[in-house]
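Re: Re: ligand-bound prediction request (bumping)

Still looking for help on this. To restate: I need the protein modeled with farnesyl diphosphate bound, output as structure tokens. Inputs repeated here so nobody has to scroll up.
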Amino acid sequence: MALLKKKVDAPGLPEVLPTHIGFIMDGNGRWAKKRGLPRGYGHVEGGKAFKRIMKYCKEIGIPYLSFYVFSTENWKRSEQEIQGILKLMTEYLDEVQSHLDEGIRYVAIGDISAFPDYISTRMQKLMDDTKDCDELTILFCCNYGGRHEITHAAREIAELAARGELSPEDITEDTVAQHLYTAEFPDVDLVIRPSGELRLSNFLIWQCAYAEYYFTNVLWPDFSTEDLDKALIDFAGRGRRFGGA
Ligand code: FPP
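Reply:
Sorry for the wait, this slipped through. Here it is.
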């Protein structure tokens, strides 16, 4: 994927920016714990950080952002915490209905049918309402897991093969990519994971195969536009060879 030339005249930013940034919004629970608050408060602040960062990315012209909102593993959390995250999602899905003119396309990546109807119908409506917006695309990874996504793609491809519509020898990397939820979107260039954890945690594992990784000890609720600038400067200094010499 070609990298972007910076669109706005922001002196602190490098000339070359990533086209697609993936955010693992980690550290909400620890942010709350440090303050003696229930974990849900951390997610509320995490939701504010999401809005701050996506607004800034839109201003500087990054066209694709992915956010890990809810993983297939997050169902193991307490009912109270899950309900808190679902409430935040619902509030955002309602709030965004008054901002449909901002040119942001929203796409949910993952099996949203597992969510209560009030979430999946709102999410589907938002995807339909914004399908022609092209200033910024936000991929919400919701009930998402990279292994689950690849398994789902493998099943679809196997069904085509079983029906005789595709020969096994014609299956290429491109075939797999075309059966992922992200078929129409570019691979991730930069993954940002705050909170000091050095893992991908099943986040867009196919799409991040050649991504650069940026880790910071800052907790997601504290993640600022200055922290993002640091990540972008670091990214611009990396030599990306995609396996070449
Ligand atoms: C991981 O931090 C965070 C989550 C599992 C939830 C992320 C969800 C939000 C920020 C709400 C987003 C809402 C919208 C509208 C996008 P953690 O809880 O695992 O943190 P910890 O490792 O410190 O416990």
